[in-house]
Design goal:
The protein is an alpha+beta fold. The protein contains 6 helices and 6 strands; from the N terminus they run βββααβααααββ. 26% of the residues are buried. Bound molecules: heme C (HEC). Residues 116-117, 120-121, 123-124, 127, 156, 160, 168, 171-172, 175, 201, 204-205, 208-209, 212-213, 220-223 line the site of heme C.
Amino acid sequence: MPDVIRRACIAAGLMLAVLWPIAALAQPAAGEQPVDQVMLSGDVTVARGTVVGEVVKFDPAEIAKKVKDYTLDLPADLVAKYTGKPAVIATSVITAELADIGKKLPPPMTPAEEAFDKVMKSVSAANTALQKGVSESSLELTKQQTTILKKNFMEAQLFFKNRGTADATGWAQDAYKFVDAIETAAVAGKWEDVQTSTKSLAGMCSTCHAQHRERMDDGTFRIKGSS
Ligand code: HEC
């Protein structure tokens, strides 16, 4: 794919930015000697930027060993030309606007995963408000949030059931039960019991997240093993 091979002037020497899915072109620092640059993937041009990565001697076998999920895509003449020259295996390409365009983008979510993501964002907001309600012993605020959380954990239970994830289905069900217990105790004015169940609920968040939640390169969360 010759259209993904570009040459420009850079400060650091030949640069092989082995990035997925996009890479960037960099410009020389003022006054420095320009050298050839080859980018192996991507179609984004960055006027100025910072490249973070490992400096290696370019060798196709070495690149294959170091970057497992990347297939070297350079014509033979360029491989010959650059073999033995310094190269950078970039882990980050940070633009002047401080965006890191070298990160792997997570795969798109399925509609069901997207719906579940909204459920979790709602759980998060309701849980924060619930803690406030509990700390103030406010029945009104507590009940508002338990109503939302019960609906959310019902949806979560259904989501994991459809997905065939038995442990998470059980944990969503347990979370529902703790929310229900919080509500019952709050209505009865037993705020110590409310506190206890609130702690148990927080434990369910951690238990399920440890097993099924994954933080992506871009800082967003996904379900482990999602498509
Ligand atoms: C039965 C499993 C399960 C339980 C219980 C659970 N979560 Fe989650 N949560 C997940 C999974 C899986 C993700 C990652 C999927 C996603 O974010 O799209 C997630 C994501 C999140 C996120 C990130 C949302 C985002 O995308 O920004 C927050 C915040 C969150 N959960 C809060 C909570 C809180 C607070 C509780 C407890 C009150 C809780 N969760 C209980 C499974 C669970």
